[in-house]
Amino acid sequence: MIVNATDLKNNLGKYLRLSAGEEIIITSNGRKVAKLTAYNDTPHTPSDGGLLRERAHIYETTPWKASYQEFLELSENSDERYEYIDGEIYLLASPKVVHQRILSELHFIFYNWFQGKTCRPMFAPFDITLKRNAENINVVQPDLMVICDLDEKTDEKDYYMGVPSLVAEIISESTRSKDFIKKLDLYMSTGVKEYWIINPLNKEVSIYLFEDNNISQNATYKKDESAVSYYFAGLEVSLTKLFAEPLRKS
To answer: What's the rounded mean pLDDT across residues 148-154?
Structure first.
């Protein structure tokens, strides 16, 4: 069977089921670019690839539509990292060095500040389930989050099912639109109190305070300023320290 990439995106569940019985060739702009085949436990060779590898090749920067159940089946049977926002699956790319350096510094600052307090900073990979309503269920992996109800909202499978008080995302060129638009709207409408967007591209930090499903206050910090939390009085982060370049060997 031959299908185009657009048809595959719009009918992913159907073609995943069909791939169990036959090979599906995927085309883009009239050119064969990948194939879906039934999964088995035999190690894949570089020449034949695998279902998830082929899908990642096509959708590494483009989301594809799926039901919540299809997302759960995909994420539970894959070593890849995915997010599910408003009915679309996003494959998360492996973070770069600058991303991990900033995340490490941010977590260190948050961890020290929250010592002895009831809230706790956590970092990705860590699934957060957010519901706009009963039908619109979303699953995201913020880079860093502050959770104040961990014990009360952890289920019997040891998954956290509450809403973080604060989330932080470290953006890149490929995630800029999702973090500034889709995730801002998602966090604002599902009970998150404060959202930090950390931009290594221009070394800025933007902070949004949400009240009544709306932005009540926001500020952007630059250069040698310190980013100051609205929700957690006294929490601040020096941008000079956050974006500090590593020491070079002489």
So the answer is: 94
Cβ-Cβ contacts under 8 Å for 243 (sequence gap 6 or more): 102, 200, 203
Domain coordinates of the chain in residue numbers? 2-91, 97-242
Is 245:109 a contact under the CB 8 Å cutoff? no
In angstroms, the CA 84 to CA 121 distance is 22
CATH match of 97-242 with 3.90.1570.10: yes
Neighbouring residues of 235: CB distance < 8 A, sequence distance ≥ 6: 110, 113, 228, 229
For 78-102, give one letter per residue: b (16+ CB within 10 A) or e: eeebbbbbebbbbbeeebeeebebb
For residue 159, the number of C-alpha atoms closer than 13 Å in the C-beta half-sphere is: 8
Q: Which two tokens stand for residue 203?
A: 């070394």
In whole angstroms, what is the distance from residue 98 CA to residue 127 CA?
A: 22
Closest to 6 measured CA to CA, from 62, 49, 61: 62
Of 20-29, 51-60, 115-124, 165-174, the poorest mean pLDDT is in 51-60
In this predicted structure, the answer to whether residue 3 has a pLDDT above a threshold of 80 is no
What percent of the chain has pLDDT above 90? 62
